Amino acid sequence: MKRYVLAAMVFLLPAVVAAQTNPAARSARLWRQQHERAIVDEFVALLSIPNIARDRENIQRNAEAIAAMMARRGLAPKLVSVPGGNPVVFGEIRTPGATRTVAFYAHYDGQPFDPKEWASPPFEPTLRDKPLEDGGRVIPLPPAGTAFDPEWRLYARGAADDKAPIVALMTAIDAIRAAGLAFKANIKFAFEGEEEAGSLNLEQTLAANKDLFAADLWLMCDAPLYQTRRQSIIFGARGVTQIDITVYGPRGELHSGHYGNWAPNPAMSLARLLTSMKDDTGRVLIDHFYEDVEPLGPVERQALDEAPAIEAELMREFWLGSTEGGARSLNELITMPSFNIRGMASSRTGAQASNVIPASATATIDVRMVKGMDGRKTVQQVTEHIRRQGFFVVVDREPTADERRTHPKVAKVVIGLTGVGSRTPMDLPISQEVIATVESVRGRAVKLPTMGGGLPLLAVERPLGTRTIVIPIGNHDNHQHSFDENLRIQNLWDGIELMAALLTM
Ligand SMILES: [Zn+2]
């Protein structure tokens, strides 16, 4: 969401600091109030280490810094990796007599960036008195013993996505121990170093170290809070399947005057093909497309009904005069697969255009996959649909001259990633327990069956046979993946309390 800053939303709640009733969270608040500067200092030190996944040297420095944070707390850290992969930083708390194990996931790498776009250098963490878009000015860290204003923002790559949960977890452990509270479960930590690069080695790393990473539940501490600032809990993510479709016209571009009305135009042909795949309301018309979608249960349906409506505000913010899906909410629509044209190209446009009939036209499609769907099967359904529109289809290769000469319509399909979606049922006892714990700290939460985008949930679930639930702590307007990424100080404070409650669940 590059620059679509949602901060202007009119429904933002005032920063109400409610009385804290969860004992671990209450201890965490007390601890935090006495140690604000030290907590932020530890965060600043971690944020000062560059964290782009391909920068191996600095990734290693991050991993070692996190291991040192863990070692200071007696968490028996280990750097775990497979050849070519960035280390996953592992740590644990063994609890005598525990009957279950809860793992906490976060990632310490961040998205690449262009430093010229940043108001302050991304790896020089900078405190501002409010968001930049509201005229935020740089301020020094307040001296130890002085309270931070909770609306201040800390600017740095990784501040929100996703080093904040690491610091929140470590601080929560300090607070729990200082208060003499007990852990009930065995606790594990797994902090990944290449999530923003696609988590290419995560599944393999976990599969090669199954016993080390085994847990009954993985809490995936990533993603921002709901747009209204309410705490959210997210039970799934969508995967991506990518397909390129090319349709062909003449061997090379032809003069549009000499041959127009005679030589078929591939751009027109592609447009017809694409409109045959999806109707005006957004419904995908490809046969069997929705067939394997695992339906939502009553608990999920009710949670969707209870989520605050954000559509009108988003439409205003994004300049949208209409939306797809009829009256259905954004949150409901993202529980379904989407069929999206990422981009299209045929010959040239505008001032670069020439009077030609193009030789080919290409569209790149992404299908956002939900639980139950299979990427290969979806690709087959799309390919079959193209055939039924009268095309001769070749897959993952160029059609030959003869194939183009002997078939009225020819299309090429190139299969990219074939991802799948995942979703943990909300009515499982463990899901209900997580909801109750989160709500005991943060009040009524927005519970979403899935997020629209991806997280490496299956990379965890598949090798370990475990469940995942996403627990966000960052502010929704944190500019993650863009320039001027920031964390609102109150979100860090809230995150520490939330993690304390989940750690003692
Ligand atoms: Zn992230």
Write the layout of secondary structure elements.
Elements: H1 23-47, H2 56-72, E1 78-80, E2 88-93, E3 101-107, E4 126-128, E5 138-139, E6 153-155, H3 164-178, E7 186-192, H4 202-207, H5 210-213, E8 217-220, E9 232-234, E10 236-237, E11 239-248, E12 254-255, H6 256-259, H7 266-275, H8 298-306, H9 311-318, H10 330-333, E13 338-345, E14 356-357, E15 360-369, H11 375-388, E16 392-395, H12 401-406, E17 410-418, E18 422-423, H13 429-442, E19 446-448, H14 457-464, E20 467-470, E21 486-488, H15 489-503
Parallel strand pairs: 3-7, 3-8, 8-20, 9-19, 16-17
Antiparallel strand pairs: 1-2, 2-7, 4-5, 4-6, 6-21, 10-18, 11-15, 11-17, 12-14, 13-15
The protein binds zinc ion.
